[in-house]
Write a structure and sequence with these properties.
This protein is α/β, with parallel strands linked by helices. It is 30% helix and 21% strand. The strands form 3 sheets. A 5-stranded parallel β-sheet has the order 2-1-5-6-7, with helices on one face. It has a 3-stranded antiparallel β-sheet with strand order 9-8-10. A two-stranded antiparallel ribbon has the order 3-4.
Length: 213
């Protein structure tokens, strides 16, 4: 559990779901979370932005699946195709997400995985907390302009106080500063092309933020 960021598939805005509450539990132990839920993307859980999917170019180290087995299988299959097998992330199947085909595939790769345990219970039972300073996390959001003029609105937020509902206009991209630095999605790649000499990713993101009216 050395990763400062935990990617959580199935974490959306339904507060009754264990995936939702897990985000807050892990945050209180010092981890930054990357919830992934296509329907609720662009909103936040405990200050962290919900992504619609995992961008190409990113290298997650811990992935937790709060999914039905068939959906977990689809995610694992996609990860096997897209990610480096030599640095494959730990796949944590929450109880009820276990899928025999996925586990067989991971075992054939000698990839790490966990079954029959809950990540929140595990960290509590072992008194684990994040050993790498990860909070607060800065993240960026790009949506279509409310004016309908074909422009986009770029904003920067902090996990310390962000409380965002799903965007009322099209979500174009959302991610942390690390995502901005490494994602191969079209928008982060374009944003990086705007960097001036010796400019940090954080300074770049802030410079492009739409000023308050």
């Amino acid at each position: 559990m050395m990763s400062p960021v935990i990617h959580i598939y199935g974490a959306g805005l339904n507060t009754d779901r264990p995936a939702h509450t897990a985000v807050g539990e892990l945050k209180r132990k010092g981890w930054a979370c990357a919830p992934i839920h296509p329907r609720d993307a662009g909103a936040t859980i405990d200050g962290f932005p919900i992504r619609p999917f995992l961008d190409d170019g990113l290298s997650p180290r811990v992935i937790v699946l709060f999914l039905a087995p068939e959906r977990a299988r689809s995610v694992v299959r996609d990860l096997i195709v897209r990610l480096d097998h030599e640095a494959f992330p730990l796949i944590w199947f929450q109880r009820g997400a276990e899928d025999d085909q996925s586990i067989e595939a991971l075992e054939s790769m000698n990839a790490p995985y966990v079954v029959n345990d809950c990540i929140v219970e595990y960290t509590g039972r072992n008194k684990f907390s994040c050993s790498i300073e990860a909070l607060p996390q800065t993240f960026c959001l790009q949506t279509a302009s409310e004016d309908g003029d074909g422009c986009s609105v770029w904003t920067v937020h902090s996990s310390q106080d962000a409380q965002l509902s799903p965007p009322t206009h099209a979500l174009e991209w959302v991610g942390s500063l690390d995502d901005l630095a490494y994602s191969q999605h079209t928008i982060p790649r374009y944003i990086r092309s705007l960097r001036i000499q010796d400019e940090s990713t954080h300074a770049l993101a802030k410079r492009l933020t739409k000023p308050e009216p």
